[in-house]
Design a protein that fits this description.
alpha+beta; 4 domains; 12 strands; Arc Repressor Mutant, subunit A; extended; SH3 type barrels; five-stranded antiparallel sheet; four-stranded antiparallel sheet; 11 helices
């Protein structure tokens, strides 16, 4: 059984109890597809973790319930004024990071938190973004098309291991296609919201941009997810899968301080050059994210190895140079006479 199956099942139990108010152990076993013994262990684990679960006997049956408004005692948690204020102010950062389909929920959660502050406190804290501002990544702007309905269905399919059929617009082929999928995980990155799903037709896990999902319908048929790595896209600078290769890039002296002060990837190492430049070494996937990142530095970066990557970058630069040369030459005129 995958290591995350247990926590997903327990999260499903919490959601079912919250939605249904009360359920028997038999009800929960049928919904999750496990034995009543497993459900009892799950309920015990959730209680040990501090979730307010209770059982009561009604008409000879024992029901389990989740206390309504379990976290209504926010004022009794012992937060100091500084801690509560810091949480409230963090909405500026969290709302930037939240994928668009969740922004309304994040805002609603912070509105409830704000109720614990006086109007004067909120007025003061609302001024803080004027001196500390978080800017959202524009690359994720396309997720405005990722409707709450589609994201909600994807979460349902992922948590409950339900197969689904989706209509997806492929950028590579330029057409819409239907896929039978087994959704494994939703991943949010600055580039947008992505779905990691197994495609039985191809017998492999693929990555899909949620913004390009046109429609999705869930099946009652369940699936057993395979084990996934703890970190998805571990070898990529973006949201791609692929084996790592050793990459060395030389940066000119004027950009060296900027390169040196940042962590671009956990595998990186830096070596200083005599001219004041640096050589950045990475063990990453040779994918679009890496190549576009290198190209973004223009003449300030030069790939030392591997040779195929250097050739790819040179080809991109040569093609761009041709396009700019044609543009600079202006429109061609036909000879007269």
């Amino acid at each position: 059984m995958p290591r995350n199956a247990e926590v997903i099942r327990q999260w499903t139990i919490l959601r079912d109890l919250e939605a249904s108010r009360r359920l028997t152990i038999d009800d929960l076993a049928k919904r999750t597809g496990v034995t009543t013994r497993t459900i009892r262990r799950d309920l015990e684990a959730l209680q040990t973790s501090g979730f307010p679960l209770f059982d009561e006997q009604i008409d000879g049956k024992r029901y389990w319930t989740l206390e309504s408004k379990a976290f209504r005692r926010l004022d009794d948690t012992g937060f100091t004024l500084a801690e509560l204020s810091a949480l409230y102010f963090s909405r500026t950062l969290v709302e930037v990071l939240a994928a668009t389909p969740f922004q309304q929920d994040v805002s609603a959660a912070f509105d409830k938190l704000a109720a614990a502050l006086t109007p004067q406190m909120r007025q003061f804290l609302d001024r803080l973004p004027l001196v500390l501002q978080a800017k959202g990544a524009t690359a994720g702007g396309s997720d405005r098309r990722a409707s709450r309905e589609i994201v909600g269905k994807l979460l349902d399919a992922t948590l409950n291991h339900r197969r689904a059929t989706m209509k997806y617009f492929s950028m590579s082929s330029g057409r819409e296609k239907s896929y039978l999928i087994e959704p494994y995980r939703l991943i949010y990155s600055p580039e947008g919201l992505y779905l990691f799903a197994f495609v039985p037709e191809y017998k492999e896990v693929r990555t899909f941009g949620v913004a390009r999902i046109r429609a999705i319908s869930l099946h009652e048929e369940r699936f057993t997810p395979a084990e996934l790595p703890e970190t998805i896209f571990a070898h990529s600078l973006g949201v791609h899968e692929g084996p790592p290769v050793h990459v060395e890039i030389a940066f000119e002296p004027r950009i060296a301080p900027y390169i040196s002060e940042r962590t671009w990837h956990p595998s990186q190492s830096l070596a200083e050059r005599k001219d004041g430049g640096v050589v950045l070494s990475l063990d990453v996937s040779n994918d679009w994210a890496l190549r576009s990142w290198i190209l973004s530095f223009g003449p300030l970066a030069r790939v030392l190895s591997p040779a195929p990557l250097a050739a790819q970058i040179k080809s991109e630069i040569d093609e761009a140079a041709v396009r700019y040369a044609d543009r600079a030459a202006g429109p061609k005129t036909r000879p007269t006479g």
